[in-house]
Specification:
heterodimer; A: alpha/beta; Rossmann fold; 8-stranded mixed sheet; 4-stranded antiparallel sheet; 11 helices; globular; B: mainly alpha; MetI-like fold; 16 helices; binds adenosine-5'-diphosphate; binds iron/sulfur cluster; binds magnesium ion
């Protein structure tokens, strides 16, 4: 709202709900590297309602992980604009995470306790030197109880909850004794051990085989229903989105370019980029693992800035003279209060 | 774990046997029998050797026996602590070695401890404050430490110290304390001498290991599980010392195995300059004068130390990293 020229960046069409656990507004994140500035996030705005699963999709490099890491204040880049309001549901108070000291006590209290995160690589997500139980207990001892026996009991309980066949034994195992799927279950157990308000899952199944992926997705869905944790589910796989999410935010080059409910995204996609993403969903019988790179052209290099709509060099519907000159605003799709898009075709 | 230890110990004993074979073979190596050398030297010192004495020596050293019998005689005597007689001084080899070996081992262990105590915290600091000016200074000092040869540093320290304190400080004691019984004054004198030896011995390894620690920690800090630890809400100090250092310390533990004997022999030059009564100069002497019983015994003992160092390193590593233990 301070920036008059690119007023659209301070999205005034936020889908505002009193029930949001997190509300990201106009988030800007830059990396200062030897080669120049990388503008990783250029004004990202979205919100996650309580108990809902928001899918964040887009090609690799569009800023999904950095958005998640920013919410945890674990990014190595610099947050240079915007705010991240987080509402702890038990206390009801809202905190702007960007104002907290990066490794200060308040931020550390939130991490692992109110917001937790799981990562793409289950094989390397756990420390090889400590038992799985020890690593889960560590979080519980930090946030929930000082009692070691109690922490151990809770760790075994949560391991059971994530479907571990022999939770006592798993707790005493070292990560390298478990398969990738088991390790991801252990990570989920760790992340949920303090019943967080928000779980950020960064491509949690990308590294797993199809069967294991399906099991983990089932598990996450079940636990989400049971515990009521909101999830920010990062993926580049539209098929996974269809299984997991209530709402979807599509990202392109550090911006959210379309935001809608799951039904609207699949049955009434508006943005040309979303449409091409949907076309690239692997169908039954088609080789899996095919990435979304089947969209024409490539993502511009991160050091450059594109004028106009960032998608225009690749967009089949680009309007010459407009799309390559003017950045489209984020607007509601006609007749909807939940579906927004950032494209000149809909203004 | 017990299984693991047992396997390593059996391995070590097996290797020791092989090493002792090689050691004995080297003792045998000089042209002619060892005895000829001995006899020649005795002759050179003048005097006629009675035939009976020569015969007695021949049987004692068993030069007429086949190799394996000789080896057996030698190894069984060695196991009882009789390593033979040094040709050069007619002292027993054991007498000549034990004292010096003790000094060598204690000096090296102290130097090793020094190396670890310095290189771990500095390496960690350097990695966690990468590209800050203290990191640059540490890096600069490291390269100095790596590039100045130990003997040069020994000379520099020796000269500086003698200028500053106006007394020779080579050796382990000042002359007036050398044969004196232990007292507080002697201890102080000893400490005043020994620190130079320890610093000089440790400086190269410390610089190297600081570098290794820094590089390894930087690698480990990029690992996903470090992110996981941070995402739990742990303090940065816990993330570093509990989760990162333990994974970065492997090469330092492994270095124990190789560093120990390297410190003992490798620094012969330093020991000569600082006139330290360690095993290195003795080894050199023994080789030069073809005192083969002495040289062979030192060789076998150093190899045994290497193997023991490796065993300790393996056990420590297994304790640090469960993947090693549960293989
Ligand atoms: N350490 C870094 N230094 C410089 N740029 C980075 C760094 N980490 C991420 N980026 C940039 O941030 C952008 C977004 O990265 P990321 O969030 O990991 O993408 P995604 O998760 O969507 O694949 C990328 O363009 C990348 O170049
Ligand atoms: S604004 Fe223009 S270029 Fe951008 S997506 Fe819409 S039609 Fe394509
Ligand atoms: Mg990513």
């Amino acid at each position: 709202m301070t920036n008059a020229v690119t007023g659209a960046e301070t999205s005034n069409v936020q889908i505002v709900s009193e029930d949001d656990v997190v509300r990201v507004q106009d988030l800007k994140l830059n990396f200062y590297t030897a080669l120049g500035v990388v503008r990783a996030l250029n004004g990202v705005s979205f919100n996650i309602p309580r108990g809902k699963v928001l899918g964040v999709v887009g090609e690799s490099g569009c800023g999904k992980s950095q958005t998640g890491l920013s919410i945890m204040q674990l990014t190595t880049g610099r947050i240079e604009g915007g705010s991240i309001l987080f509402r702890e549901f038990n206390t009801g108070e809202a905190i702007d995470i960007t104002r907290l000291e990066k490794n200060g006590p308040e931020m550390r209290h939130i991490r692992g306790n109110n917001i937790s995160m799981i990562f793409q690589e289950p094989m390397t997500s756990l420390n090889p030197c400590y038992t799985v139980g020890n690593q889960i207990e560590e979080a519980i001892l930090l946030h929930q109880t000082q009692d070691k026996a109690e922490a151990r009991k809770r760790a075994v309980d949560i391991l059971q909850k994530v479907g571990m066949p022999n939770p006592e034994r798993i707790a005493d195992s070292y990560p390298h004794q478990l398969s990738g799927g088991m390790r991801q279950r252990a990570m989920i157990a760790m992340a949920l051990s303090c019943t967080p308000t928000l779980l950020i899952a960064d491509e949690p199944t990308t590294a797993l085989d199809v069967t294991t992926e399906a099991q983990i997705l089932d598990l996450m869905r079940d636990l989400q229903n049971e515990i009521g944790t909101s999830i920010m589910f990062i993926t580049h796989n539209m098929g996974v989105v269809a299984q997991m999410c209530d709402e979807v935010a599509v990202m392109y080059l550090g911006r959210i370019i379309e935001r809608a409910t799951i039904d609207d995204i699949f049955y009434d996609p508006k943005h040309p980029y979303t449409i091409s993403l949907l076309r690239s969903i692997p169908r039954l019988g088609v080789a899996r693992g095919e990435k979304l790179e089947s969209i024409k052209g490539t993502v511009p290099d991160p050091y450059s800035t594109v004028t106009g709509c960032p998608f225009h060099p690749r967009c089949p519907a680009a309007i010459p003279g407009l799309c390559d000159a003017v950045m489209p605003d984020e607007t509601f799709v006609a007749g909807s209060r939940t579906h927004t898009v950032r494209c000149h075709l809909y203004t | 774990m017990l299984n693991f230890i047992a396997r390593r110990v059996v391995n070590m004993i097996f290797l020791l046997i092989i090493v002792s074979f090689v050691g004995f073979w080297i003792i045998q190596l000089p042209p002619g029998s060892i005895l000829d050398t001995q006899i020649q030297r005795l002759r050179a010192q003048g005097g006629n050797l009675p035939e009976s004495l020569i015969q007695a020596l021949r049987t004692r050293y068993g030069v007429d026996d086949p190799f394996y019998v000789q080896y057996w005689k030698w190894i069984s005597r060695s196991l009882q602590g009789d390593f033979g007689t040094s040709f050069e001084t007619d002292q027993t080899v054991a007498e000549r070695i034990y004292n010096r070996l003790g000094i060598s081992v204690s000096l090296s262990l102290t130097a090793l401890l020094f190396t670890w105590l310095v290189s771990i915290p500095i390496g960690v600091y350097s990695a966690t404050h990468r590209y800050s000016w203290p990191d640059y200074i540490i890096t600069f000092v490291q390269f100095l430490g790596l590039s100045i040869p130990g003997f040069l540093l020994a000379l520099i320290l020796l000269i500086t110290a003698s200028r500053l304190w106006d007394q020779p400080i080579g050796g382990l004691f000042s002359p007036q304390y050398a044969d004196a019984p232990w007292s507080v004054a002697k201890l102080m004198d000893f400490l005043g001498h020994v620190w130079i030896a320890i610093v000089v011995l440790a400086v190269g390894a410390t610089a190297g290991l600081t570098r290794v620690m820094r590089a390894n920690l930087l690698d480990v800090l990029n690992m996903q599980y470090i992110q996981t630890a941070r995402a739990k809400g742990l303090q940065e100090a816990t993330v570093i010392w509990k989760h990162a250092v333990r994974n970065a310390i492997h090469p330092l533990v492994m270095s124990l195995g190789t560093l120990l004997p390297a410190l003992i022999v490798g620094e012969t030059l330093i020991a000569i300059i600082l006139s330290l009564p360690t095993i290195g100069p003795l080894y050199l002497d023994a080789l030069r004068s073809q005192d083969m019983y002495l040289a062979g015994t030192i060789l076998v003992m150093l190899s045994a130390l290497l193997l023991i160092g490796n065993l300790i390193a393996d056990l420590l590593l297994a304790w640090v990293d469960p993947r090693v233990r549960l293989e």
